[in-house]
Amino acid sequence: MLPYKIIFMFLHRPTFKRSTTLYKMELTDKKVDKDPLKRLSKCIALKIGYSTKRTMKLILFSTMLAIAASQEPFRGRKLQGAEKDSCILGVVSLLRIPGQVLSDPLHSGKDIDGDTVFECLDNNGMTTVLDMDKEQKNALHQMIRDGSIVPGKTSLDISQATRTKNKISLPPGKINIKAKNRAPPGRNLATITGTKRFLAIKVEDTNGLQLPDSTAAISDNIFGTGHHNDAVNLKSQLYDCSFGEVNVSIDYSDYPAIQTATSSIGVLEVVISVDLTTSSRASIRNAVTAAVEEKLGIALPGPFDYVMYLLEGCYVECGWAAYAYVNSWNSVYQGSSYAAVGVQVHELGHNFNLAHSGGLDGKTYSDHTCMMGNPLYSDEIGKMCFNAAKNWQMSWYGGVGDTSDYKVKVDPRTTPLSSFTLVGIGEFDKNINSSKYPVVLKIETGTSQDYFVGFNRAVGPNAQNAEADNEVTIVQVEGGDGLNIAQSYLKAHLISGEVYTIGNFANTGEPLSIKVTSIDLSTEPGSADINIVFGSDLHECTRSAECFDDGVYCNGVEMCDTDAGIPGVCVSSGNPCESGLKCVKNTQSCTACDEVTIQLTTDNYAGETSWDIKYSDGVTIRSGSGYSIGSHYETIPNLQEGVHTFTIYDAYGDGICCNEGAGSYEVMLCRKTVAQGGNFGRSESTQFTIESSQTSPPTTAPTNQPTNTPTSQPAKAPTSQPTATPTNQPTNVPTNQPTNIPTDHPNAAPTSQP
Predict the structure, then answer these.
(1) Alpha carbons 405 and 421: distance in angstroms, whole number
(2) Is-contact 568 541, C-beta < 8 A?
(3) From CA 374, how far away is CA 671, in angstroms rounded?
């Protein structure tokens, strides 16, 4: 039985390198029988080295068992498929054609709720639409944003679901994740670098419907292979936007059978057994997958990183120009949309785990500074990259997030005044050998809805940008802390001298202002200088005598901070009470602290973390859970005297540091730390005491205010209002995507179905 065990383990080993070896042996051995089972059995016999008839029979029998069990002789479906009672979650993001209804696959004739369809991927690589209620859809979106579910990887429990030919209906209630398929860390998903192998599929349906373009023209439109000298294409734009980090490959020389099967460089033709005019979107996609696999003898994606399906048009469940599977390998295009560089890069953005980018009007696609907005519908106009939030998430420009020297994070609550010089990604190559100015600035809010600032330099790969050329752009994400997939919205774009103010920054009750002090386009790279100021008492000054008393005893004395240069900014000296005591504004005194602040930084599995505070009798005072990846703050005021217990929990039992990220927590009584840590098992508890109230004088009495009244206001004031005056930020995360259809794009867009 030894050969049986060896063969069985070999066929199910999910390692592409070994599967590749088998497949190449099959292709290069011309004497092998055309029957696939005989081909495979001979390859295995050659590989292992057995030659007797008895061994060969045993190997053949083992092979038959393996094929019957997995239907996957070369590349394991277990990587992307599912068991009978589970399925891999597929997230389909559709690009709506401006002005058209995006047909709901579950409710004929109705506009889809948002732009996303959830699907199940089975063991055969086929997809089925998931039917669920609105609450379940919202829960899925939130779990994707916080990283507890990863599209294309996480298995859902569908053991209690109702199944029909066209859909899988989940029972009402909680969405269950297969515990053994715990989602991998979300922050590692957008590391898209290196050589990526592509394949385009020209599809002909059962009635002969297919794109009129030749395969040579298709190859040139996507890969720039020279049929009509397409200068701006998918290959060139990904290479240029990433500054060489991504190289699109259409070299199949190590797979001669695949190379022979293609009609033109990078383009394969297949005929499907379904009718485009009567079939659903999912059934067409499944038919194409089956036809490609049959023709090439592989299980997709096989040796390819990304595969593009090109259809003649859409007739059922329409309204989309293209769609893609998030954090996956597949994108689908209808009609001439495949040739538009903006559409190509937009859909690959979804494959890269990027969400859509909304604009100042709050609509889903209306950020025209970013390819993830409604893109450029043109074959030769497509030199535009991504916005600041997407660039933070991507591994381009030095790495993901603040692991890069060119991406900087600032927390205004701890650094109320900061200044930066920004360089646009359009001139990133000019920035590398200079002062290494940041290309993205993240403004930390302590929630998952952070702000991102960039300089939208309209040159190089970003030269055909469609909005806010050479301006500073401010973008906020809907969730995900800038590391997981989340919708973003453009909040403002500023020229020199303009200011964007957030009235109640991070629910602190204090404003935050972002001011562009100058923009210089005369040098390479061009640059933008910005100041970030947090707090209502901050204004420009040259000396402390120019700083007015704000009348707030508990923030100390106002003085001029000139550390960042002249003019400086008026700041407060800080809380006059020592740590552990509470400053009382009305009585201008220090008293025993009766409030506790929880500062939590999650690991990569934020959804597993929770905490509570209980009285000595076990009654829960406050608790927290349902976090997204990132930092979180919460203050609980007016606690009663006595002993309290703080407990932090991790549902998986491995704490929040340091196996799956550098998480930590700190519990403070009026700035005095009473508990901290991160490296624990299932839970960790600490007791602290709220003392009886008593009044104490401040440790340092405030000095007298300046005797001289300032004679003038700050020397410089903004000369104009911001491009768009922001309203107060919402306190709650939106639960639904915008329902309005995006406005028409400034470039020509399809007006009807092909």
Answers:
(1) 14
(2) yes
(3) 47
